[in-house]
Design a protein that fits this description.
Two copies of one chain form a homodimer. The first copy, chain A, is mostly helical and about 160 residues long. Chain A contains six helices and two strands; from the N terminus they run ααααββαα. Chain A has a single domain, classed as Arc Repressor Mutant, subunit A (Orthogonal Bundle), CATH 1.10.10.10. In chain A, about 65% of the residues lie in helices and about 5% in strands. The first copy, chain A, binds a DNA duplex (23 and 23 nucleotides) through α4.
DNA sequence: TATTGTTATACTCTATAACTATA
DNA sequence: TATAGTTATAGAGTATAACAATA
């Protein structure tokens, strides 16, 4: 068996068990959880030929079709130059299309193609199931608490 | 003609306000917080010429100097091939050095150089301050709760 | 002048596979 | 055979800067 894929054991309790302040420990825990979660989600998407960033685009368009590239850049927290490449790829794959805005000829609005919508619908359940499997370990009350805390933290991040 | 949009806040309430289950909402909130946090931390590190991954290496070695590349790969949740490039860069920068293990000549153990240790000590306070500024919005009791929940989630991710 | 999208460039991170040198 | 590290290759994401078309 080739050990090509990811390892499974955090062999080194390097950072988690040291007696730091709880803010720092919570931050490290979040970064590590994200790393794990990202890999789980990526693996699930790879079966559909999607990257996480591309799935993000599809999901964003599912709920906000017709947004501009600039708006997408702001939502995804990346630069507009980055969005160009991102959209180039999903457009080349036939999942998204750019349409000129008749009112402002500078902007291009983004729409899902039928194939893109179909793919999004196909990939979504697996992602949901994965999230449910992991986050389902917490009770609904805990999930609400978690969500509220994360929202406050994100607000602190922006402001 | 339209009033200038503020591109600093997430203009699209696309995913957060839809009536999904709390597990999904919590997951999305976490992914978004991570995105923001990652950028904040990266910006702080860029001033020191460090990437987040490189800072991770330095911090890991600060607390577990002498680990092998394989152990580092497991800890960072990446492949060993990835670690080679990562260490190549921090070694070229003069922050880390590989040392042959006399007992098993296959392995190379990783150590911080004086410059690396100095840089880690210089970069750390800013990162801590940033974490404190953000996570300080929660009380210590909340931070403990958050940490516990995140740890349970990470466990669910692995197992 | 400012804004939207684009191109050009470069770097980092990541994964896969095949390879080496040890064990 | 198995393991630690390496090389080679590829692709994806990111940032920066300069640019064109349009407002």
């Amino acid at each position: 068996m080739s050990p090509t894929r990811k390892p499974e054991k955090p062999a080194l309790p390097v950072l988690n068990d040291d007696p730091r302040s709880w803010d720092f420990r919570a931050a490290v825990a979040m970064l590590r959880l994200h790393g794990r979660l990202e890999r789980c989600l990526s693996d699930g998407l790879a079966a559909h030929g999607l990257t996480l960033a591309q799935f993000d685009v599809l999901m964003t368009l599912c709920h906000g079709e017709g947004i501009t590239q600039q708006e997408l850049a702001e939502w995804l927290l990346v630069t507009k130059a980055n969005v160009v490449g991102l959209i180039d790829r999903v457009e080349a794959a036939g999942w998204v299309e750019r349409r000129a805005d008749p009112e402002d000829r500078r902007v291009k609005r983004l729409y899902l193609t039928d194939a893109g919508r179909k793919l999004a619908r196909k990939a979504q359940p697996g992602q949901h199931a994965l999230v449910r499997r992991i986050f389902g370990r917490l009770s609904e009350a805990e999930l609400r608490q978690l969500h509220a805390m994360l929202a406050r933290l994100e607000e602190a991040c922006s402001g």
